[in-house]
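Much of what follows relies on a compact textual record of a protein's fold. A record is reproduced here so that you can trace the correspondence yourselves:
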Amino acid sequence: ELQRKAEETELLKMELQMLETERVRLSLVEEKLMDVLQLLQQLRDLNISKRALGKILLSTLESCREPQPGKAHPFEVLDALHHELTACELLQSQPLEKAQSHQSLSNPLVISC
């Protein structure tokens, strides 16, 4: 009985560790997604053309064509999209104060079409 309880406890510890790992992974994905959505909001506020936005998206998808081993593909795509958006010239030329003041006035996650 004691042996069975010890094995059950060990299995529960392993399951808890796996759940914690998954929680951390999902937190990282959520954080990256929030960053990407904020960058998209800033670009929308700067009236980026659909053509330019399409080029950013196509460039992202091209860079993620072959999934890297050991890295979750959705996170890889989000990471690449974040990199492409931060490299966007419109965002780099935008004054920092304007971006910060505008972010505080609106919800950065609402993107209207």
In short: Residues 2-45 form the longest helix (44 residues). The chain is about 75% helix and 0% strand. Residues 96-113 have pLDDT under 50 and may be disordered.
